[in-house]
Amino acid sequence: MEQMDRMTDSVxxxxxxxxxNPLGLPEGVKEAIRNSVDQFGIYPDPYCRKLTSALSQRExxxxxxxxxxxxxxDLIYRCVYALKPRKxxxxxxxxxxxxxALNMVSCQVVHYxxxxxxxxxxxxxxxxxxxxxxxxVFLCNPNNPTGQxxxxxxxxxxxxxxxxxxxxxxxxxCFNEFLDDPARYSVKExxxxxxxxxxxxxxxxxxxxxxxxLGHCITSNLALIKGIADTGQPWSVSAPAxxxxxxxxxxxxxxxxxxxxxxxxxxxxxSALRELGIAVISANAxxxxxxxxxxxxxxxxxxxxxxxxxxxxxENYHGLGPGYYRICIKQHGENVTLISALRxxxx
Length: 347
What we know:
- Pfam families: Aminotran_1_2 (PF00155).
- By secondary structure, the chain is an alpha/beta fold.
- It has 2 domains: 7-24 and 252-346, Aspartate Aminotransferase, domain 1; 27-248, Aspartate Aminotransferase, domain 2 (3-Layer(aba) Sandwich), CATH 3.40.640.
- Helices cover 35% and strands 17% of the residues.
- The chain has a 7-stranded mixed beta sheet, with helices on both faces.
- β5, α4 (97-104) and β6 (108-113) form a beta-alpha-beta unit.
- α2 runs parallel beside α8 (239-248) and α3 runs parallel beside α4 (97-104).
- The radius of gyration is 20 Å and the shape is globular.
- The chain starts with 6 loop residues before the first strand and ends with a helix.
């Protein structure tokens, strides 16, 4: 687990490892949960009808294309269980849960290795490895942990090739709403034309609802929607999660304020990190992917931990090694604390 509740020297850690909206849980969501406590004594709607209706309005797609789940990870596993792929392609590095879910069904995983020399960007080589024996391709846009974006035009080419070869394309857009221009990189407009496309989204990051557990997937493939639904238990989305989700979708001012804060603080952090000689590889969403100078005898993350700061050490991602880190963008005071700690370490 990335987010840890740990103490060091009797001081609570400042957690830069989990990419959660720095504004925290919206006040409207807190109020909705408080006011609905009496509903928690009955079973939740297994079909999430109010939430699905609200999502349909928000996403601009039919209700029957949407399935809600107990967070994004729940839907990743359920999709894999429904499809039972024999061979899949995933990026390296990328979010680990795709491969972990694929391993549960003994699927052969082919890694498309992203290259440091090109900034870990997805390139045309991905198209070249798409063959008829593949069943599914997992892409994350923006990618986690690299933060790099895949242009919509390239995704369209991938989608067309997958369609021609009978390959399912799974696109994780959980961090899309943190982008300055989310629509520019979403493939939602292709859903009607391509029934081999499934999009994953979540309330976890953008609404700071990690502990509530709520995500949804969208596809025009109704047989796949039913298959994914059938792999889960009937009450996978709790009553508090459904209530919180409906209320969160009304928080437009919150989203605008979050994007403005993130854009401002991202500029501050990128500039400050580069002044310290830390290589910023990507900074597009609400997190920054970077490479630290070599430090001996203790690496950067251990030195920061002793100062009460937790960052994501990315060396355990397939395709990465020591020195790669991901930090989330937080409120200005916390970001200043991080830069001050880094300055004391690297200068």
